[in-house]
Amino acid sequence: MIRTTQILTLSALSLALAACNSSSSEPTPTPTPTPTPPSGSAELRIHHAASDAPDVNVNANGELLAGLEGVSYQMSSPVLDVEPASYDVTVDGILPGGEVTTVINAEGLELEDQTRYDVFALGLLGVEGTYEFGPHIIANDFSAIGDGNARLQVVHGVPADVTVDVYLTEYDADISAEAAAYTLGYKDDSGQFEVAGGDNYQVTLTAAGDSEAVLFRSPELSLPAGADLVVIATPNTGANSDEAPIALVLADGEGASVVYSTTTGGDIRIVHAISDAPAVDVHANEITAEPAVAALAFPDFTDYLNLGAADYEAFVTASGATDAVLNAGFNLQDGDVFSVLAVGLLDENTPASLFLAAEDNRRVATEARVRIFHASPMAGEVDIYVTATDDITDEDPAFPGVDFDAEEIQSTGNVALAAGTYFVTVTAAGTQDAAIGPLELELSAGGLYTAIARDPMGTEVAPGLILLDDFVTIE
């Protein structure tokens, strides 16, 4: 165990965040120390740390603030230089269709001279009490960072009744016999601390009083001198969130990056979308008698499977066979979520392949999220309509000219829709002749809905859809 003050422990936490966007083998750039601003100035920074809130616009005195438009979860603004004064700061949530609604109204926010203000959007929408959505403001007087030091401040932003112990150790050290350096509850923060720059650190967060209940464990970290960091513990909305519930956000004064725990791994699911292929086995790295996925038939799919962060080679064989008919390599990092689509046909004109589709599964309380993939060779180039009724006569396609490409499967991406009833119709491109649908969809706010266009199965004569996630009513 490295014998440290509490200051050093918290710096390790920000240190963990600093390594967020780079691999441990890459050097960490040395930041330029931030000079103390002159008298007659204040600073303001905004952090979006509310996991189920939509993207937001940030305004001051009725005007967009410093281009802060469409700010997403786990993003932070740069540190903004502003005049000391009273400001009406509002945060507008962006609703489906581009409409906005004010979700934070901080009228008369007094920004004093020689003070930095960090404004955090924390909590959950639609919840009252301790964890309800709202602003959380931390103010710090201006001060210079000591030579050779880094400064950081840790904030517990996970809206749950979980108090955490914070440990800083040498990388891969045993914490079981050590005392925690910090204990933080929701909205608690460490205050600003300075530590000497260094490397080979690891930050571990556990449930308070239980060193074996690990909630977050960082990769090997380096904290360079001159860094001035705010570190925010936020809900993990990436892979394996049940087992790894926390992700750290590092705000460095210019933006923010996300650090996932080394216990997170990546989530993948396999979708069999090759209509003329038999049931298949899927093997990881080598073909064995016990495949990772066995006897997956068209048009079925697996649940998400969690794998450790690493490089993988996927091999697909006919069920029970040992010769690979498809294979593909991919890199899986902590927090990644992918769908692996087996697509195409078993012929030379439309050769089968494996396509890796990155997924964003964050649920937003103000919208339903819908995404559609085109994996039907028979359908060819199509137009996709999303309408309020089943009549598309006077409608324009929401997604025109979507073509099948086995090497680069096209999709709509995540489309935000208000809760309600919709009809999806897929037509041959440039026509209103339905190839799929109209299909009636009941969508709920906070829902996640995925559909994959596929070729016919069995006695069907027209393409259909593989339905995943929260689809509940298809008629």
UniProtKB/TrEMBL annotation:
Region annotated Disordered, chain positions: 21-42
Record's compositionally biased regions (Pro residues): 28-38
Signal peptide (from-to): 1-25
Top-level taxon: Bacteria
Pfam families linked to this entry: DUF4397
Domain DUF4397: 42-167, 267-385
Keywords of the record: Signal
Keyword Signal: yes
Record-given protein name: DUF4397 domain-containing protein
